[in-house]
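#onboarding

Welcome to the new folks! Below is a worked example of what a typical request in this channel looks like: someone posts a single protein sequence, and someone else replies with the predicted structure as tokens. Don't worry about understanding the tokens yet, we'll cover that in week two.

Example request:
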Amino acid sequence: MSRLAGNPALEVKALTFQASASFHLGQWGEMVRAYEAASQITEAVPSLLQAKTLLGLARAAAVQGRVTEALQRLSQARELCPEEQEQESLPAFLAVDESRWLPVVFDASIRLTLARCQMCQEHYRQVEQTLIPLTTSHQADEIPDRLQLVLWHLRAQAALGEGDLERFYATVQETATRLQRLPSQKRKQELVNTWRQARQLWPHERRLLELADVLL
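Example response:
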């Protein structure tokens, strides 16, 4: 349908949507093929969409354990990300879904994947260092509430990976509080899944049982 519309940006958007769906279904081959197809279309495509394609390829590389390629793709995507004033001129169908904060989310998600694949604590620490100022300083006011939910949950996952119970409890509690103000069944289920992983790591921790009151 997007090809019939003769709009390259729509075509890339459709391919990245397809790739994202494949990612969540664990269909890595389909994900890679969709992102690679999107990367071949560059004419008349906004730089933010090109960056999203590179971020997708970085995620694909991370899932497959190709660390160097994943980090290179991340770097290339950052260079392509537009300034705020350029983003304001995006077509409506892009401006609603895409964000200049997209690389931050992908960066954290990719580093969490690399940390799990490599059993590397450094990636967890980098996620926390990157996200702290975006969730606790004046910069947080610039980020939409729905994206703040994602960032706080990413911080919780990093804390879990590092085995930091105090930080995990605090970040999950904050994420749960934000979910009460901005309900999302998808985000709630993601947070519950993370909490259940923590219960396996700390099966006798009383504070995790207390969190069940707000999560379940």
